[in-house]
Amino acid sequence: MMTGFKRLLISASLVALMAQTAMASQSTVDAALKAGKLTQAINAYKSLESSDSQSVTGQLLWARILLAQDKTEKAYDLMEPLIKQAPNNVDLQFRFGQSAMIMAQKASIFSKLGYAKDGVKAWDAALKIDADHKDTLNGLIGFHRFAPGMAGGDIDKALEYAKHLQKIDGVAGTASLVGVYQSMDKKDLALQELNGGIKRYADSSRLLFIRAMKHINDEEWASAHKDLIDALSHASDDMEKSNALYQLAKVAVKSGANIKQAIGHVTQLMTIEEHRYLQWGNLRLAQLYVADNDLLKAKSTLKLVDGSDDDDLEDEMKRLKKRIKKLSK
Q1: Is pTM, for the whole model, over 0.90?
Q2: Is 18 helix (H, G, I), strand (E, B) or coil?
Q3: Distance (Å, rounded) from C-alpha 176 to C-alpha 194?
Q4: Is 129 within 8 Å of 88 (Cβ atoms)?
């Protein structure tokens, strides 16, 4: 016969197990969102128990999904009352600030300033809760880098936040400092900071990628290729991997070098779930097939590209079609 004490122990164990299961389910949604796997995140969210999805943490996860779907106003409206309910939730303050800043970018001239003020207010509140909250620091750095003074932008504040971020996260802080120095038109300091960061963090895919993009802008194709190969080898997630793979394809198209290797790279890119280069990736692949004198594959690949929502992509497609037609004669 089970004693009252044993029943109590079993009950406590079940409660603990249920809590762990709920946390693991919410963690699954969080992990999918961080990895950029939106469909997986939505499916995981829909499998949550009602109590988990309707909690503050659960609603915050849904707000993040809405943001990832570019349904910013819905995310903003969802989080606005939650702020009053849980003002000390640092992640909620950050995400609400994020939604407000996106709304400021989309809003009419009459509403921009109001949304920007909401965003800064939420981010300032987040830093009061946790002065080392990295996402908030990144957000404020971006705001103060790019917002005009009349909207509250202040490059000196951006520099201050970037230096603080560097103390708690060397790679992220270095990347931010490079951007701030670029905004201040201090190109030598930016390059010095970037090269120093790569020496300190030789396995940082992020910093290598930033330097590769500088080389691309300067049309230094061989240096860009080298940094991108290194960035790819140190990529820590699918997002870093897909960025490096796509840029390797672009560099090959622009330079005319490493064509066969780049075909392999962009083919690998297309196997990554929910990457953001579906249209441009197929265009680069078609361009690479042309460079490799495989017009048949170039034509079939180009048919996969939809440029209806991207004027730049559509222009590239037209040029490639003309080139293929000329080469086919």
Answers
A1: no
A2: helix
A3: 10
A4: yes
